[in-house]
Specification:
Elements: H1 2-25, E1 29-32, E2 37-38, E3 45-46, E4 64-66, E5 78-81, E6 85-88, E7 91-92, E8 101-104, E9 109-112, E10 116-117, E11 123-124, E12 129-132, E13 139-142, E14 152-163, E15 167-168, E16 172-181, E17 187-188, E18 191-194, E19 200-203, E20 211-212
Parallel strand pairs: 1-4, 2-5, 4-7, 5-8, 6-9, 7-10, 8-11, 9-12, 10-13, 12-14, 13-14, 14-16, 15-17, 16-18, 16-19, 17-20
Antiparallel strand pairs: 1-3
C-alpha cells in the first residue's frame, strides 16, 4: 500500500512539472498588425512586430500581447474587444503610434494574467472590465493617466500587483485574491471591495498615496 501511495505521489509531481513546462513552452508573443480591427480576427495577430506570419488562434492566458509602432498606420484607427473574454498574459502598448483607440462594450472582459502597460499615446475608451488573474508575484500595472471605465478585479491566488503610477477607476475595485501594492501612488475609485472568503493583502503606502474611495474595508492588512 505504501509503495502504491509513493508511486501516485511521484506521478502527481511529474505530471505537475510537465504541465508547467508545457505552459511555458507554448507561451508566445502576439503583435497587433493591420490597423483597425476586432480582437477575434486572427488576421491582426502576427508572430513578430509588423510581421506577415500570423497566429492560428487569438491570444491565450500564456501569451504576451503587444500594440506597438507597427500596429497602426494612420490616425483614427482602433481595436475593438468583441469577445466575452479577451485573454492574454501581459498587455503592453509601449511604442504605439497614431493615437489609436481601445474600445469594447461593457458586456466584455479583458483578462490579464501578467502585467499591464499603458502609454499616453492611445485612447482608452474600453467600457468592459479588467480582470487581473495572475497567480505569480512581480506583476505591475502602468495606466499612464488613463482611467479604467468599469470595474477592476484582482483575482489571483498568490498573485501580486504593484502600481507604477497613479491609478484611477471610475467604478469599483475588487480585491478577491492576492496582494495589491499601491507603491505610494494615488489610488482613486468609487469603492474598494475586498472579498473576505480568502485572505487578501493590500499595501497602501498612506504616507505618500492620495486615497479617494467609498471604502468597504474590513480585512485589509497594512
Amino acid at each position: 500500500m505504501k509503495a502504491i501511495l509513493t508511486k501516485l505521489i511521484t506521478l502527481f509531481i511529474v505530471t505537475t512539472i510537465l504541465l508547467m513546462f508545457h505552459n511555458n513552452l507554448f507561451a508566445d508573443e502576439y503583435y497587433w498588425v493591420g490597423g483597425s480591427g476586432y480582437w477575434s480576427d486572427i488576421n491582426h495577430w502576427a508572430t513578430l512586430s509588423g510581421g506577415g506570419v500570423l497566429h492560428s488562434q487569438v491570444p491565450t492566458a500564456n501569451d504576451d500581447v503587444y500594440f506597438d509602432a507597427n500596429s497602426f498606420g494612420a490616425d483614427g484607427q482602433f481595436v475593438v474587444v468583441n469577445l466575452k473574454n479577451a485573454v492574454c498574459r501581459s498587455f503592453n502598448w509601449t511604442g504605439v503610434q497614431h493615437n489609436p483607440e481601445l474600445a469594447g462594450s461593457d458586456t466584455t472582459n479583458i483578462r490579464v494574467f501578467g502585467s499591464l502597460t499603458f502609454v499616453q499615446e492611445f485612447q482608452q475608451n474600453y467600457k468592459g472590465r479588467f480582470l487581473f488573474e495572475s497567480t505569480n508575484q512581480g506583476n505591475t500595472v502602468t495606466s499612464a493617466g488613463h482611467p479604467f471605465l468599469n470595474d477592476v478585479v484582482f483575482n489571483g491566488e498568490e498573485g501580486e500587483w504593484k502600481l507604477l503610477d497613479d491609478f484611477l477607476c471610475a467604478t469599483d475595485v475588487f480585491l478577491n485574491k492576492g496582494a495589491l501594492n499601491t507603491n505610494g501612488k494615488a489610488f482613486s475609485c468609487l469603492a474598494f471591495v475586498p472579498i473576505h472568503s480568502f485572505r487578501v493583502h493590500c499595501y497602501f503606502q498612506i504616507h505618500t498615496s492620495i486615497l479617494k474611495a467609498g471604502w468597504l474595508m474590513e480585512k485589509i492588512y497594512f
